[in-house]
Amino acid sequence: MKKHTKWLTLGTILLASMTGLAACSNNKQSSMPNKHVHLSQNYSVSSKATKAGNDSTLKIANISKGPVTQPAAPTLETTQEGNNMYKPGGFGIMFNQNKDYHIINGGLANLKLNRANNTATVTLRKNAKWSNGMKVTAKDVEYPYEIIANKHSKSNQFSTDMNDIKGMAAYHNGKAKKISGITFPDGPKGRKTVIHFNHLMPALKYNGNSTMWNGVEPYEYLKNVPINKLASSSKVRKHPIFVGPYKLNKQVQGNMTSWVPNKYYYGKKPQVKHIDIQVESPANIAEAMKHKKYDFAFGSPVYQYPRMKKLSDYTEVGLPKLGYNVFGFNVGKTDKNGNAVMNSHAKMANRSLRRAMMYALNLNLVAKKYGSGLTYRANTLIPPAYRDFHSSYSVNPGFPHNMNKAKQLLKNAGYKKRNGSKFVSQPNGKKLVVRYESPTGSSQDDTLDNYFVQQWRRLGIDAKFTEGKPIDQNSLIATLLRHKQTSVDVYRIYFGMNPEPTPTGFFSRQSSFNLSHFVTKKNTKLLNEMNDSASFSKAHRAKVFKEWQKYMNKEAVYVPEFYTPDWTAVNHRVKGFSMSPADNNLWSNLSLTSSKIK
């Protein structure tokens, strides 16, 4: 009770502060971001690991606003929180990578690209096995494509880029039973899989690209489960198998997973004998760390940084996130074929309305006051973590706060106050009510959402929460994934991008994650040019990326909120912790110096 009251009080203080912030939000702000902290990517205590330490349990928090309900199958993944629950098992990942996410040899499989033949050859290790002892086969490399692209699949991972694989479009449309462009030189139980493309994309050189899946699924284990029923199958819900250094020992669905070493793992044997991953509320993580409940956490919230930084037995480690929270404006629907269709008569179809709403928000000041030194206002949909492709603030400032400009945009577009109303109506004279929604979280998250609504109302827009307040994350995602929904006009949700920056997975015509249903000829053209033959030149590719960022800011159907690091506090009994993209053996390198958290 005392803890609840404390956080409720904090929320009240923040709300009062945000009211003051709103009062000074009329002025034009700098186009540059606020200053922010840079963290080390690694931590390792100097003392030696001990047998007692390694025989104990490494305890990890998975920060989530609610239960994690997705199955343990990467092809059916929908959230980062779901991915985090199963990380010690490797989650099917095939390829190792360097610090720039470039695929290198040495993982579960190696990759060879042939531009002359437009092929990618995946060769599995000879000793590659699943955690139940079954051999990893060439068919396991192909099977994810069958799951993702199946017409009746529950997967949301399909990207239009995958249609570059020969035969993929026919399979995806239900006109073929197999994908003709994926072959097995040594047979489906062999080690080689050859993927034939219409043309080879530069994105294929990087892990996590949206054209070639970077993981395996156990075909022999899953083959008797219909693909349309796979997401609810006990084989991915209760008894999943893995290829990583650990295997699942037990789990409490949605809340906890427990791991032990996988004796069939091909690589360096893990040193820690037990790992527990527990779902923890973002509001409670600092208090939990203070009481030595966890060694480190996945998804630590920015607002807890000041409290966790004070913990003497922990050190903060971080890496620039590849994702961000995004404001999305609903401008259409998804048709029966899974294609986004824009509606020119949709409430949020007016570009000036969208842009005005973004200029009304003082994100620079919000980040400075409440970002704990870690957060800064985002300027484009390609984060600076992609060093070669991010468009600078000086070239593409995004939406620095300018309430006067916001009001002028509305006025010029015909949004006016009529008949004594304190809110503007639509250009056609009809009433305008903008319904906003966001996942419920900490008191600070909710306070920020209230600030956004407040600013839009100060702009003259009758904005309100769809449900009167932020809602459960899973409920919001379910609503936004519907083919057609009109209950949410504007939403704020996290987009976690792939290590390879091509954004087709969120913004293409056929992407399930194109939650706003945005599709234009120019958007499609620029997305395609990111991976045409000319883009094997990095300079040309960067130019296309920067043109796309400028275009997306102009349209403002999707607008990023803040850039933040992926960070955690690491307990001082932990050795070998790293968040570097180049650390391909994290789970095998981890060790512990004592049996209890220090």
From TrEMBL:
This protein's record includes keyword Signal: yes
Entry superkingdom: Bacteria
Membrane is among the record's keywords: no
Species whose genome carries this gene: Acetilactobacillus jinshanensis
CC terms in the record's Gene Ontology section: ATP-binding cassette (ABC) transporter complex; periplasmic space
Domain Solute-binding protein family: residue ranges: 116-508
Residues annotated as signal peptide: 1-22
Record-linked PROSITE patterns: PROKAR_LIPOPROTEIN (PS51257)
Record-given protein name: Oligopeptide ABC transporter substrate-binding protein
Gene Ontology process terms (BP): peptide transport
Record-linked InterPro entries: Peptide/Ni-bd (IPR030678), SBP_5 (IPR039424), SBP_5_dom (IPR000914)
Pfam entry (one): SBP_bac_5
Keyword annotations from UniProtKB, A to Z: Signal
GO molecular function: peptide transmembrane transporter activity
